[in-house]
Fold this protein.
Amino acid sequence: MRIGIATDHGGFSLKEELLGRLRAAGHEVVDFGAHRLSAGDDYPDYVVPLALAVVAQEVERGVAICGSGVGAAVCANKVRGIRAAVIHDHFSAKQGVEDDHMNILCMGGRTVGPAVAWDLVQTFLAATFSHAERHLRRLGKVVAVEAGRA
């Protein structure tokens, strides 16, 4: 799978850890940065390009990391077509894709350790959208809100 990953300084070490694990697992990974640790950087500079790449289908899914994951999720969700959430548990990592068609997993580099993060990423990537009628109906309502029709 072709995966995009992005972080600011708050998740830099976690991103580096996940990059290696994703590549070792056979995934093609596009690194949207940060490419070096810099305490003055800002997550939108990395998360927005990742989100745009997900929408353009240049990558199949994304992983966005900041200190808590919250800023990355808020930022990513401003891009039309993105469904991002802060995830700290396996149920949500799977259910978010299966039921809600989540396409960017957000985590906190200061809240999730590398072993748990890797488990969550694997769960996220293994999940598939159900296409169940009720999930399609709900997704249609979300798209209507996004388009300003709600």
